[in-house]
Design goal:
This is 3-deoxy-D-manno-octulosonic acid transferase. With 427 residues, the chain is an alpha/beta fold. The chain contains 20 helices and 14 strands.
Length: 427
């Protein structure tokens, strides 16, 4: 009965997507991206087989969206390095992942994941016939995993994290638990996740490997871009960067910026680029500000104390020019990526509403590397204390860097397992 309800829910979801698509661009992309998907993929595979003149070994990586892709990327690239003759198939569920990474050079084939109906799953798995399938973090699709299991194709979930309030650990969650049991191996982020799985008799195929995002941000830090405008703007002055800024974040730190009496440069990268929103924010600031695009076009930087980033793609490299980081989103939909700032050892601040489900945020709080901000007064007090005490700031930074360094290595753990698995299978 549960399986029937699951399949009905997949059909209902598709129906709802069609219903709202005339009014919702994301739904339109979801549908459009899946039109003729099997035919296009079959053509690409045929072309690749003809070119190689031998059977293809395909490693299938599935990510829900962009965040999961960044989590999976180190494993994709390490797998390709370990198995250079294998082809990479990358699938996405969400347009926000596919549309941004559809030209990613690290994969040989990139497409949307067809809806998890029994017929789609059977057709897809038979078409690609992967050597191994990877699912990043939370993607547990019953029909796909069942088809992989029946075909004796290993399926691996990694960077997975569980919480006790999830359906797998409820009395009514047996069907959901059965989905987890279809996986060949589950690499979880922490001991708590492993313990929760052991509580539902899933333990023999579970390993603690940490979070591959640490490997990803370490890569980003090593390959950071030089941004001359940011370097010129900083001008050897203590700098606060606000990453993925929402209105709720701005409302809290703006009064602080206006009243702070010591030398401070501020870089603000909005969560989404809306010129009219940046205009309104500039009007609320009492300190002189400039947009990155204006500086790029030759406008004088010297008098500016606030730099607005009105483009996308450079935030992760901008952190190298900061001394502190405010990470947005925690007053609303959820805290954004703190690890990109942490990899540079920056003391971190964020809102007090939605952050507890992010393990790295809780870890950073525990070591004193991150501070939860209730209001402007709280931020002013904590920030000023760090600003005025170099030794305290360095102590916090050292703790953060030690934490990040100690969590690097998840990718290699996964690759070692897969290497052994493939060698065993091929014997």
């Amino acid at each position: 009965m549960a399986k029937v309800l699951y399949n009905l829910s997949i059909e209902l979801y598709q129906w709802l997507i069609r219903l709202v698509s005339p009014f919702n661009q994301k739904a339109q992309l979801w549908l459009k991206g899946r039109e003729g998907l099997f035919e296009k993929l079959e053509y690409q595979l045929t072309q690749a087989r003809q070119k190689s003149q031998s059977p293809l070994s395909i490693a299938w990586f599935h990510c829900a969206s962009l965040g999961e892709f960044e989590q999976g990327r180190p494993v994709i690239e390490a797998y390709k390095k370990e198995f250079p003759n294998h082809h990479i198939l990358l699938t996405f569920f969400s347009p926000s992942g596919y549309e941004i990474r559809k030209n990613y050079e690290g994969a040989d084939f990139i497409c949307y994941l067809p809806a998890d109906t029994p017929s789609n799953a059977k057709r897809f798995v038979e078409l690609i016939n992967p050597t191994v399938a990877f699912f990043v973090k939370y993607e547990f699709w019953y029909n796909y995993l069942n088809c992989l299991k029946q075909a004796n194709i290993p399926s691996i979930s990694f960077s997975t994290i569980f919480r006790e309030n999830q359906v797998y650990f409820k009395s009514y969650g047996e069907f959901n638990r059965s989905i987890l049991r279809l996986l060949t191996h589950i690499f979880v982020q922490n001991e708590k996740s492993a313990s929760l799985l052991a509580g539902i008799q899933i333990q023999e195929n579970v390993s603690i490997a940490g979070d591959t995002r640490f490997d990803r941000v370490a890569q980003i830090a090593q390959n950071k871009r030089v941004i001359p405008i940011a370097e010129q703007f900083k001008n050897d002055t203590q700098t606060l960067i606000v990453g993925s800024c929402w209105q709720q974040d701005f409302d809290v730190f703006c009064p602080f910026i206006n009243s702070f009496e010591y030398p401070l440069k501020v870089i603000i990268a909005p969560h989404e680029i809306h010129p009219e929103e940046i205009t309104q924010w500039q009007k609320q600031l009492k300190k002189p500000s400039i947009r990155y695009s204006e500086a790029l076009n030759g406008k004088e930087l010297n008098n500016a104390e606030v730099l607005f980033i009105d483009n996308i793609g450079m935030l992760s490299s901008l952190y190298q020019y900061a001394d502190y980081a405010w990470i947005g989103g925690a007053y609303g939909k959820g805290l954004h990526n703190t690890l990109e700032a942490a990899t540079f050892g920056l003391p971190i601040f964020f809102g007090n509403k939605v952050y507890t489900k992010f393990q790295e945020a809780m870890d950073l709080i525990a070591i004193g590397g991150a501070q939860v901000i209730d209001n402007t007064q709280t931020f002013e007090s904590i920030f000023t204390s760090l600003y005025q005490d170099f030794n305290k700031r360095k102590e916090v930074s050292d703790k953060i860097l030690t934490y990040v360094k100690s969590n690097i290595g998840s990718t290699q753990t996964i690759i070692n397992f897969v290497k052994n698995l493939i060698q065993t299978t091929n014997k």
